[in-house]
Amino acid sequence: MSTASTSPVTPTSVGRHSAITELVVPITAKYHYDRGVALAARLAEHWELPVRLLHVDTTPCEDDAVAVPVDGHIGEARARLKAQCPNISVTDEVLAGENIARVLSEALNASSLVVMATDDAGDAGRQTSHAEALAQNWRGPIVLVGPNASTSGPWSPVAVTLDGSAFAEQALPWARTLAEDFGAPLRMLQVVNADVAAKVAALRSAGEAVSESAYVRRVADGFNADGLDAEWEIAHQNDSIDGILEFTDSSDVGLLVMTTHGATGIARTLYGSTCMGVVRAATTPVIVIHPDVDTPELLNP
S-S: 39 plus which of 46, 151, 256, 296, CB 3.0-4.6 Å? Predict the structure, then answer.
């Protein structure tokens, strides 16, 4: 197994994307951001990366009229970062616009890793949280820290959710990279509902050589053959969110990796709503990956 390292991330080109070269923390005046700041400080210290604080001013006033509250929030975030990790580089930007998610997404680049705290989307009468809206607007990776997520626990183990689809499998390279970098075991979960379990049982009764765990076991075996510490688990639950949350709690997961469609309509119903449902209740941070984002190579020089 690899051991964790605090060496800097090498900005190596990966496909059309670059390796992670900065952590970006959105700062909002009305909603909690301290959990995102706390987690970003730990990641910045581990990878020796700079942190960029972004605040979007939606107030229809002159710049000097909102300078004091904006400076207050950014100053507080900067102070927390420096207190937790004195040697990291911290910069900040104040952006303007009505659509927070769109303005934030336009300020990001391919080498940004966003670390963002999120509240319950139902708060304040909003249909979606700012974090969920950002996931729909930006195609890059986001570490989401839900209202129940710990920011001080160990990174181990790293877990990833699978369902047998190529879509979900695109979280595997990220999960592997993070597990190797943190020196953590890798845990894989597949949620099987009652209908699937019944069909598998019927096939086995008919003499078919089938197993509901064949897929996830094969994936784990492949990682173990490469020298990783990988284990798999099947959760029997009709609700995917409940199955994932029970697994993360019982396995003391330190970091969960999931894919999201980052869209609206049917695609969001199938993928995005499950991911955000997990984020809102999970006790661990969740790295949300879009299926068209390449994996960064977190290489040590």
Answer: 151
